[in-house]
Amino acid sequence: MTDIFDQAQALELRQREEALARQAAKQRGGASFSHCEDCGDEIPPLRREKAAGCTRCAPCQSDHEKASRR
After folding, report:
1. Which of 15, 16, 60, 62 meets the CB 3.0–4.6 Å disulfide criterion with 38?
2. Confidence of residue 52 (pLDDT cuts 50, 70, 90)
């Protein structure tokens, strides 16, 4: 018989795997913008390829992430 801690651990693992799968599906699903939504500069083709669904150039994305942490 499993105890409550085993059940909680199994639930946590299942929820974590579902969350990771949802995030991976989001990243694969969207088309990248050709130009940054913040500054309007062209997003380099390599970034668009490697970061599927990106909407900002690398410097603007970095600024956006720093601002969202505050």
Report:
1. 60
2. confident
